[in-house]
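Thanks for the sequence, V.! I ran Solute carrier family 22 member 7 right away. Repeating your input here for the record:
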Amino acid sequence: MKFEDLLLETGGFGRFQILILVVLCLPRINLPMHFLLHNFLAATPSHHCAIPHQEAFVNLTMEEVLLISIPQEPDGTFKSCEMFSQPQFHLLLNSSLQSENKSIIQRCQHGWVYDHSQLTSTISTQWDLVCEQRGLNQATATFFFIGVTMGAVVFGYLSDRFGRKTMLLLSLVCSVVFGMLSAASTSYSMLAVTRTLTGVALSGISLIVLPLAMEWVDIQHRTFTGILSSIFWSIGNMLLALAAYLVREWHWLLVAVTGPCLLSIVCLWWVPESARWLIAKGKVKQAHRHLLRCARMNRRKDFAVSPEALTRMATDKKAGGSYFYISLFRTPVLRKISLCTGVVWFGVSFSYYGMSMNLTGFGLNIYLSQFVFGVIEIPAKMIMYVLVNRVGRRQSQAWTLILTGLCIGANIVIPKSFTSLRSVVAIMGKGFSEAAFTTVYLYTSELYPTILRQNGMGYTSFVARLGGALAPLVFLLDEVWRSLPEVTYCSVAVCSGTVAFLLPETLNMCLPEGIEDIE
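Predicted structure:
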């Protein structure tokens, strides 16, 4: 007897499964509010050098004070990181007579003045992470994703060893603790450390939520479960825009996006441990108790599977031993799956975060851009719900990645003057990118056996977060060649999409329980 047969005995997909999905969607909403928080936490408003002894210019307007104190860019805007060593009063007569003498221009000596019309306070304005310190500002995103990368390794192994629910609860508690410590940071060093630890904690939530839900649903509803979970990610995307719009001070914004974890902790009480995992580990009494509860909630009073039958299932699988990440590469088919999924996950994450952390492509303010990015994702996921069931997981995964790369590549050759066309292509690329991310979560959870599923998700998440950490840094390559970042994103997406064709199809297949099911 397979676990899918047990689920049919308990009523298949009923009220019990709906309760689990609703509760597990709460932490799913919270994830993008942290993963994309850098867009607002470290946003840099327009700024210029602070002007000393400004009270001496009482007869001048603010615009005139800036004109004699700050050099201008070719487009007429004031430079952010330079100032005149002495006031240039002759510019009041003719502002076009910008001096070519570089000796009278110096770096900011007295700090900066920021435009607070959109952003009251960010880490950039609090610790002056601009100009020469701009790298530290970008590094906060990298620190966070380094934490997520480390957490993927830790929680992937621990959730296969000690259970899904236990590790999910630990992740949520740690997320609250480190999230609140981040909000209370009094120095950049403290923020860097606490954001890294927050990334470690949130990685557990990212890894465990979907597999735990998938292990309680039947074959017919696996796609629905994966797509629904992904849609709640997009809802979190939109809620982040709302939260950031309402809370303009970075300390309180961190509190606002961390607080919902407390609700998830309370609601997790209603979610049982994975019965698949319990059976695979030989803990049949607990599994039987959860299956009885499932049958009662689904109004199946005729459930008659005994603990002894579950014991035989556990014995057949011989899954009581411990497994670690090296087990993913010991057998030939599993080794091929692990290598290919690693490449695919890197490409998906690299292209997704590369696009998501660039909020200037629509010519809108950053709040509206963030909201639009979230809205764009939902139609893409609805379409994927149909496609993954019609054309299969493998084809869907490969072509969404390839098309993401082609859209990025198309904008390299489309002239800058065709702004409307470039915007449409960029929106299509964002949609394909999200479709690829939606598919890869569902696909990967179906490829690995139950006894190694969390190890597999931990390994792929580790590789994905490397992509997420590198994605924002690639923008710095434009100093080498203006189009090099886009060429890099395009190449990685197309190559990883091609690798996806090497993976096996999982459409309408039972979830594998042991390694022998894979081989």
